[in-house]
Design goal:
Elements (H helix, E strand, L loop, with lengths): L1 E5 L4 E3 L7 E3 L2 E5 L2 E6 L8 E4 L3 E5 L1 E6 L15 H12 L5 H17 L2 E8 L5 H14 L2 E6 L20 H9 L7 E7 L1 H4 L2 H14 L2 E6 L3 H4 L3 H7 L7 E5 L5 H10 L2 E4 L1 H6 L8 H6 L4 E3 L11 H17 L11 H15 L17 E5 L11 H8 L5 E6 L2 E5 L2 E2 L4 H17 L4
Helix pairs in contact: 2-3, 2-15, 12-13, 12-14, 13-14
The chain binds zinc ion.
The site of zinc ion (ZN) has 6 residues, from loops.
Length: 443
Amino acid sequence: MTRVLVAEGAWVVTGDPALGTVRGADVLVEDGRIARIGQGLPREGAEVIDARGMVVIPGLVDAHKHTWQSSVRHRCTEMDLTTYFGEMFGRLGPRYRPEDVYAGNLLGALAALDAGTTTLMDWSHVQNSPAHSDRAVAALRDSGIRAVFGHGWPLVDLAAWIQGSDRPHTDDVRRIRRDLLADDDDLVTLQLAARGPELSTMDVTRADLAMARELGIRTSIHMGCGPEFGAMGAIGRLDRAGLLGADLTFVHCSESSDEEFAMMAGAGVSVAVAPQHEQGLPGIGHTPIDRLRAFGITTALSSDTEAFGAADLFTQMRVGLAAHRGQLAEGRSRYDGTLSVHEVFAMATQGGADALGLGDRVGSLSVGKAADLVLVRADDPNLFPISDPVAALVASAHPGNVDTVLVGGVVRKRGGALVGGLLDHARTLAAASHDRLLTERLS
Ligand SMILES: [Zn+2]
């Protein structure tokens, strides 16, 4: 498969430090990878995608999303964190059947692709049975997105899995590693979505991390999400136990201490934040972008859950920037320096890729990396004329501006519409799942 993106006159935001942003460069894709970037590349025998009038960017990377919740979109937008926990984990989560997980994951993954997200970390804490996991992975595969499946815990018998749980992570993740997600070069790969010391005992945490490391997979853990969790000092406990490492990504960390930020920096831990949720869902705490910058911690952006917020990373970039600048303006940050649009864009691309352990494969338009590419229409009424393409994307772009999306060189969106014919199917499944989860009386 050979494709050439003809980008005459277009802006090509490579995100590659050696290339920067160039105008009028073509991108040659061979065998799903970026083969060359330069002007006037040969077009013989290639399928040409006309990228004139576009901004060409690396596919966006969403480093944490509870995709299973996508069929009950905005159910929790007016709730605080505690009420969200009760609704999604206490009431709805146990109702989820495997087909509900499939419906949520398919819809959520398609919404991500539609929004220019080419890599999605599916943080899946609804492993009510092995079939739930299987259907979650099947939906990710069917969607065509590049995905990291984060295998979490069940929501049936929930109390035994959280609140200082002494149950180790379910062994089924070993089956998934062996039978389903053994190949780390596949489009869908595996991570552990673990409970960590805030939800389970240190013995369990130690065993869970040992299992992930034995299986050769990374681990993601929510940390410091709200004052109560922050006060538990879980990152410090991991540090004292010698368990911190560069294979870990923590989510939110909004109420984790500065001492813990220093520990994360020292151990090479990455952090995924979700500014729309941190700023908008009462109880999580202020998005810690200023501290992440000050400590030099690899930072990823994420869309967390569509039960509360938006599917796209443009929103997360925009809210992150606004939150940080508001913090500075009001003197609430102890760290100087304005977060730039380029920094926040890097968080949504290379930062996310690095936090998922995929930084050498995706995250920038670099020769040899996977051809995960997004074309944004620069002549749309809300973007034209472009003076700085990154400023335009961060300040104003939305999924409706995303014209074309390629994942591994395969076209997943073209001319502003998803290709593959799955969207209607996803709508049908999600509507049925939504109605059943929210209205049906269950025994
Ligand atoms: Zn989360």
